[in-house]
Design a protein that fits this description.
alpha/beta, Rossmann fold, two-stranded antiparallel sheet, 11 helices
Length: 285
């Protein structure tokens, strides 16, 4: 069968099954199986595909129709100008999370930052994307999942950032003894009762540990906030991703522990997405 016919057929099947990115996903599968790039796909529409490769394409197509994300199928995901290794043990990096990197880059322009702590690092995509942009900064990433830490270490080696980064297991701040100029986190923030209503490609293929934020979705923010002063430097900054409707409650959690909101950022859809805090300064009489 010729490439163009397989591509059209697969894209149509994805569309019928409610996959919004039907054309993109079909192209990605063909590029992976055939070792083609976008240009190759355009210039080789009459390429005759062997039966063996057709079988492989069909198997990937079926997995996608059953809800498995393309990134989980091929164990990789593009995020902020890099390609990261991922697996079923880490959260699939989201485009909206790239906002954290942009905020950090702007912050570093005007502030001296020598080290960064990433809480709930997962694949390491946030921390490693920052370190890739700033070669003099040292970063630490922690996660409760050993398998996630293993993935993060693989990504640090893949991006040649292993000398700049350190990853280890910790239940939030429990095993942290150093202090940091900048702390970032995209913690689990989905209320437990909402997990079942998430899209199939999220609830069935992202680890529950990286999704479930407790009964109101705010458990992890409380755990982070209560011990944060111990590990943040005097003029340190905290940058957190939040759910679209959680800004007010997360701000209150941190304000009660003497942190002040510096700024709230919206994502590309205009929804509350990132909060920036610092320690409240005590005025001297």
């Amino acid at each position: 069968m010729f490439l163009n016919k397989i591509q059209k057929k697969m894209s149509k099947n994805f569309l019928i099954n409610g996959i919004e990115t039907h054309e993109l996903d079909a192209r990605i599968i063909l590029k992976e199986v055939l070792s083609f790039n976008d240009k190759d796909l355009i210039l080789n529409q009459d390429f005759l595909i062997s039966k063996n490769l057709i079988n492989k394409i069909n198997s990937f197509e079926l997995r996608r129709i059953k809800g498995e994300p393309i990134s989980k199928i091929f164990k990789k995901r593009d995020f902020y100008n890099s390609t990261f290794i991922i697996s079923e043990d880490v959260l699939d990096p989201r485009p909206e999370t790239e906002l954290i990197i942009d905020i950090v880059n702007d912050l570093i322009k005007n502030n001296h930052v020598k080290n960064i702590l990433d809480l709930g690092t997962g694949s390491g995509c946030i921390l490693l994307s920052i370190l890739k942009e700033h070669k003099t900064i040292i970063g630490t990433g922690i996660d409760l999942s050993k398998k996630a830490i293993d993935i993060a270490i693989k990504n640090s080696r893949k991006l040649s950032l292993e000398k700049q980064s350190n990853f280890f297991i910790s239940n939030w701040l429990d095993s942290i003894n150093d202090t940091y100029d900048l702390i970032v986190s995209n913690p689990p923030y989905i209320p437990s009762t909402d997990i079942e209503n998430l899209p199939m490609d999220v609830k069935n293929f992202d680890p529950i540990l990286s999704l479930d934020g407790g009964s109101d979705g705010l458990d992890c923010y409380r755990k982070i906030a209560k011990d944060l002063k111990r590990v943040i430097n005097k003029n340190g900054v905290i940058i957190l991703e939040i759910g679209y409707d959680q800004a007010y409650k997360v701000i209150k959690i941190f304000e009660l522990l003497d942190f002040i909101l510096v700024r709230k950022y919206n994502d590309i859809n205009g929804l509350d997405r990132v909060l920036v805090f610092e320690i409240k300064k005590i005025k001297k009489n």
